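Same chain as my last thread, 545 residues:
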Amino acid sequence: MVSIEQTSVEEARGPSGLRRDVGLIGLMWASVGSIIGSGWLYGAEKAVVAAGPAAIISWVIGAVAIVLLALVHAELGGMFPVAGGTARYPHYAFGGLAGLSFGWFSWLQAATVAPIEVEAMIGYAGHWSWAQGLQHADQTLTPAGFVTAVVLMAVFVAVNFFGVRALAHTNSAATWWKIAVPLGAIFVIAIGNFHPANFSSEGFAPFGAKGVLSAISGSGIIFALLGFEQAIQLAGESRNPKRDLPRATLGSVAIGAVIYVALQVVFIAALPHSTFAKGWAHLDYPGISGPWAGLATVVGLGWLAFILYADAVISPGGTGLIYTTATSRVSYGLAKNGYAPKILARTDRRGVPWFGLIVSFVTGVVCFLPFPSWQELVGFITSASVLMYAGAPLAYGVFARNLPNHERPYRLPAGNVVAPLSFVVANLIIYWSGWDTLWRLGIAVVLGYLLLGGYAWWANATHQPDAPRMDFKAAQWLPVYLLGMGVISAQGQFGGAGHIALWWDILVVAAFSLAIYYWARETASRPEEIERSIDEVVVTDAPAH
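reply #2:
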């Protein structure tokens, strides 16, 4: 559990006005609580349908990709322990335009996770008679389901209003449960239900390499592994961020990766052969709409199924709770950088960015309208998340070159190799999401430029004192990067025209990514400009009540 020192409000506040109440376990549990969410309830079933038993390889590739990104974030989090860090690193490295862009990607990702967790809660709750009628047959929300979803979003916001101390205790308790249940399911189901022949009887990789790669993004693998950045977002509320952030980030990824790979192995091995005798693409059994609970029932573990149905409410609920927190903190960071109205940076007497929480609630409610089911949101969130993460390796390359003497509590081994490699991997994940997802994400990106870009233009036109400097020179690579990824996706094998052959498309994405990485590093802000941006955050991150 989280240990909170009994200090006064003023003593507990950092220079940002946020309370520094969270220790190592609180930070790590914030990330683990985000990683173990609705992804574990659906990921194993959807991955094996997409890739067969080779889905295990998909999980390993996904875990390696997330580890690479987490390593980069671990160093940056120690260097710059500020609230909403993922929205700020590109701002430091490339100035206003890049900071605005990646800040929007970060907010877009955070704001859409809580609604998807609410939908997962409602979907599994349909097992009970009292909750039936909340979804249509296609798993979209009925009017009653929409009202229920709004109420659940309101609960997430209400808990956050009690402050980060209450959140840390609430999330810590929920996270212990969220770890115990999948681990218990792994061991209980594996005992007496582990059939090694399942891995080969219908082919280990029936859909080939394309199935393995598409499962990484399309079946929810990356979505399930996301969440390590929550410790980074809470950096402004950490008691010892330079020591604890790297440990919390890497520790949470390790815990999540081990649990998810084990879940996939046991899920495949425990299935009766009759459930996939017609091929993995036709996997079916009673209760498959709740894959793990249904499997427990099929193998005669009805009591475990009851626990899993209960966890299907608790686990997504915990993840939705922490992402509601993250959304308000990213909004806080955007406002502090001058990209959004200053009201988003105002905190109440508990140090809570109260207006950011209100915006988080409204956004979640709006998401229920265009994305009324769990499946419709997964690919979109995955792409938005990885696009957000892609800013960190770019910023790392700039800081390694332009700020070599800056204090680094954690120094990434072989960073000059890991950082560009992680950028390549991030773009491959985006590409594997498919063109059908990416063109929708493109619309959301344009919307962000209209909203945040419009505010930044107004702030500069009216000579606001905190108007962001829109450094187009340092971010000249950005439009080429965004448009280039769109063109490659449109011409590629994953939902595109298919003009770029499989394997060649990977080489194209890798070459394009490396070109962008080194171009961005060459045109980045000069060291004195980066130092000035950092100093401005220290000066302007003052309490705003």
